[in-house]
Amino acid sequence: MIFTTAQINAWVGEFLWPFMRVAMVFAVAPIFGGQLLPMKIRVTTALAITWLLIPVIPPVPAVDPLSALGLIVALQQLLTGLIMGFVLQMVFAAFAIGGGLGFASMVDPQNGVQGPVIGQYYTILASLLFLALDGHLVLIGVLADSFTFLPVAGSGVSRDVLWSVVAWAGRMFAGGVLIAIPAVSALLLTNITFGVITRSAPQLNIFGVGFPLTLTLGFIIMINALPSLLPQFNNLVSAAFALVQGMTPGPGS
Questions:
Q1: For residue range 27-52, what is the model confidence (pLDDT) as tens digits?
Q2: Assessment of whether the complete model's pTM goes beyond 0.85
């Protein structure tokens, strides 16, 4: 049997280009891209997902992987996967920001960095909500659809999409503020009350009374604010997936 170079390029590209996009998503996306998940499992999962997506995605152009156009296509697939995973990471970063106003810190086992305990608690809670709401399945579905609204080609996402991703960081900080504002507002009122008490009764040891009372009040506020996290998480995840689905090819597609 004799195979031409075009046939070999078509066979290689049929699996290589989708795999690069899928692998980058799983390398950056929350939960899948954490250090708790071994690299072998991530690569194996990316290979399996790519193998399942090949029959349902549009045909991939036959491009020589070793050519200049092949390098451009590879970079575009990596950039597309990076954007998709990074937008979801910003959703989880909003919860880390919302719980980042704490004193106690410990090593985050998922990211390998040191962070506030409350921020890690909110991040773990967001991970559980993401899995409970089948967010990982929605991510795979959006990833499969991305090959339709953003097919494999020498041109990738438009400049407007890149600016939209940058602007979406503002929504990440706004989400973090919305998550933290109940506790911050209540503790601010508590500290103002302690200040008034200190001015009225200077002989009172406010540090001995105020510190444990503030900690107890903080835990009570966190428990009562838990039901409001679900709609906020739904809004952030829905907006993130909408941004991903709004990605369009740049000029020259």
A1: 888 888 777 778 888 889 899 999 99
A2: no
> Which H or E run includes 188?
helix 159-200
Cα separation, 221 vs 187, in Å, equals 9
What are the pLDDT digits (tens) for 63-122?
A: 777 788 888 888 888 998 999 999 988 888 888 888 765 555 555 555 556 667 787 888
DSSP 57: S
Residue 77 CA from chain centroid, whole number: 18
In whole angstroms, what is the distance from residue 10 CA to residue 200 CA? 81
**DSSP summary character for residue 150:** S
Place of tokens 């494999």: 152
Please say whether the beta carbons of 104 and 116 come within 8 A. yes
Of the candidates 85, 68, 77, which has an alpha carbon nearest to the alpha carbon of residue 18?
Answer: 77
**CA distance linking residue 7 with residue 62, whole number of Å:** 8
| Crossing angle of the two packed helices 68-98 and 5-28, in degrees rounded to 10 | 10
How is residue 161 written in tokens?
């999409």
Q: Output the CA torsion sign for 96, 157, 151, 20.
A: negative
Q: Which two tokens stand for residue 60?
A: 């991939």
